[in-house]
Amino acid sequence: MNIVVCDYESHAAPILAILNDAIVHTTALFDYEPRSPETMVEWFRAKKARQYPVLGAVSEHGELVGFATYGTFRAWPAYKYTIEHSVYVQRDHRRKGVARELMTHLVAAAEQQSYHVMVAGIDATNAASIALHEQVGFKHAGVIHHAGFKFGRWLDLAFYELRLRTPESPVDG
Questions:
Q1: 3-state secondary structure of 55
Q2: Is it the case that residue 88 has pLDDT exceeding 90?
Q3: Distance (Å, rounded) from C-alpha 96 to C-alpha 71?
Q4: pLDDT in tens, 128-158
Q5: d(CA 105, CA 110)
Q6: Alpha carbon distance 75, 82 (integer Å)
Q7: N- to C-terminal Cα separation, the chain
Q8: 2-163 is classed in which CATH architecture?
Q9: Residue 101: CB partners within 8 Å, gap ≥ 6?
Q10: Residue 36 has what DSSP assignment?
Q11: What is the C-alpha to C-alpha distance for residues 47 and 42, in angstroms, rounded to an integer?
């Protein structure tokens, strides 16, 4: 498996397929409707504009089997050193170390960009994702109970945080 920087032309369709599978079949995304191919144009544009990486895991057969990225945690300026990330793996490739490999590279990218805290919002019943995040060093930071409603039930949103070594010299403003 190779970790690559994803681009729209090569990776939009497989990323969309992974996202839509998660929307339709899991509570990893608190979303109801699959996204259209057109949404990927803006998604990639926004990632590029903010220099947020989109990393992909490519199998030995050249297939994108997972991806990870991060983005704004909250829009106010004092949150500039905090990001919220996402990691998704194609159904047939879960529990094979793909997400862990993606997370390792994503954390390194966040440190290179001088972020200080990486946040994960996880369905509190998603034991596999929680275990992955704990293995990578994330700590439980709290739960918002009944934060979402999907598949006929309330979903609790657990927050996990990873404090990074950067930035060396944070500044206000």
A1: strand
A2: yes
A3: 25
A4: 999 999 999 999 999 999 999 999 999 999 9
A5: 9
A6: 10
A7: 40
A8: 3-Layer(aba) Sandwich (3.40)
A9: 1, 3, 57
A10: P
A11: 9
